[in-house]
Each structure stands twice: as structure tokens, then as C-alpha cells.
Amino acid sequence: MKIDLHIHTANSLDSWIVPDKLPAIAKRKGLDGIAVTDHDTASAWPAVEKAARKLGIAVIRGEEVGVRPAGRRVGEIIGLFMNEPVDGKGKTSVEVIDALKAQGAIVVLPHPFDKYRKIFPEDELRELAVKVDAVEVFNPRVALPELNRKAKAFAEEFGLPETAGSDAHVSWEVGKAYTEANANSPEQFRKALISGKTKAHGTYHPFFTRIFPSIAKLKSKLLGKKHR
Ligand SMILES: [Zn+2]
Fold first, then answer.
1. How far does residue 160's CA lie from ligand 1's centre (Å)?
2. Taking the CB of the first residue and of the last residue of the chain, which one, N or C, has fewer CB atoms within 10 A?
């Protein structure tokens, strides 16, 4: 199965992808499944799942949790195979990981070395490496390819399974990166992932596309939209 493990819908406020359109986009791109990993919300899960059922696209419930121990975001952690959203407000990285694990979710470190985004300091990352399940070793939105190579080396150093996801915020980015595993169901895919049998694939987004999350954020702000 080929599953894009990092996608934002419009419920993320910085994305243009309408939740119930996402499964059809994924199908067109030749994906078998998608993980919905909106920023700090799970509100798109039902709409995506409903649309996906008719198309035979697997949906993994996920979230990109902003770790905000003192209000400000200090880093991000992705949960996959979740049952309910996790609020990163007032929580440290370890507390977010524990909250995800408590519901049996798989914990992934997204774009861990992309210093142009909010990431954890390297000493903290090394501590977290013993708690997380996998590392996102390819993210097409990283500022420099070098930063993905560093993530891959980090995963290898700690013997952690690898994932890839497009981090899509517009439809044409979906499927630009995906995780492949020998599986016939989301459950088999989950097992392959935790046992390190996944392969990360991806190509980079054209540079111009990076501006779209900022425009979407501005649009949400102008429309007075808030996280649901
Ligand atoms: Zn993201």
C-alpha cells in the first residue's frame, strides 16, 4: 500500500484542500490511503472518512499536534491511528507523546531538522528518539534537501522506522511523498510501520507552492475562521 502520511485539509486553516474532496484527489494520484494530519484538530476525520468509503481509499486518523507548554508552539508531533484529538496546549513534548500512546496511536517526529520551522532542539530530539515510533525522513516542504537527509540519518542511528508524507496544503501536492508497505489493510500497514518495514518515497514541491499556506492563513483570518 502507498499511503501519504502527512496531509492538511482546510480545517487546518492554512490549507486549501476541502476534506470531502481529499479521497478523490488521493485516488487520482494513485494512493491507496491517506493520513489526515491537520494542525491541532480532528474535525476533518468524519468528512474524509465518509468520502473515502465510496472510493476504497484507506483513511488514517491523525493530527499534527503543536506542542505548546507555555502557550507558544515549540515543536510538532504527529499522531497516527488515533481515536481522539490531543490538545498540545500546556503540554511538553513528552506529555504529548504520552497522551498519544495512551490511546494506542503511533508517534512520528515530522520534519525534525527543518530549522526554518518550529522544531525541538537537537538534545531534546535525541531524548525523544527513545519514545517515538517513527521519523518522517522525507517531507517535500523542508527548506533544503539536506534537512531530510539528516532526518534519515537520525532514524538510522536510532533504528527507528521511516515515514514520508507530502505535508500537502494544496491539492496538487497530495501524494508527492508517501510511505509504502507490504500490506492489504490499514491494520497490516500499522504493523509494518511499527516493525520498521516501511519505505519512504518522495519528490520535492516546486518552490512557488510554499506560499499557499500563508495565503490560506490570511484568508481564514480575514473570514474570522477559528479552529473547530
Ligand atoms: Zn504539516
1. 20
2. C
pTM: 0.92
Residues around ion ligand 1, judged by CB within 5 A, are: 64, 167
Report how far ligand 1's centroid is from the alpha carbon of 13 (Å): 12
- pLDDT tens digits along 129-182: 999 999 999 999 998 899 999 999 999 999 999 999 999 999 999 999 999 999
Question: How many CA atoms does the CB half-sphere of 36 hold within 13 Å?
Answer: 33
CA-nearest of 11, 2, 23 to 171 is 23
Q: Is 72 exposed, middle or buried (0-12, 13-18, 19+ CB in 10 A)?
A: exposed
Domains and CATH numbers, the chain: 2-222 (3.20.20.140)
Strand partners, 77: 65
User: Ligand 1 centroid to 19 CA: how many Å?
Assistant: 15
Report CA(212)–ligand 1 centroid distance (Å).
13
Measured at the CA of 99, the angle between CA 97 and CA 105, to 5 degrees, comes to: 75
In the DSSP assignment, the letter for residue 144 is: S
Contact between residue 154 and residue 112 where contact means Cβ atoms under 8 Å apart = yes
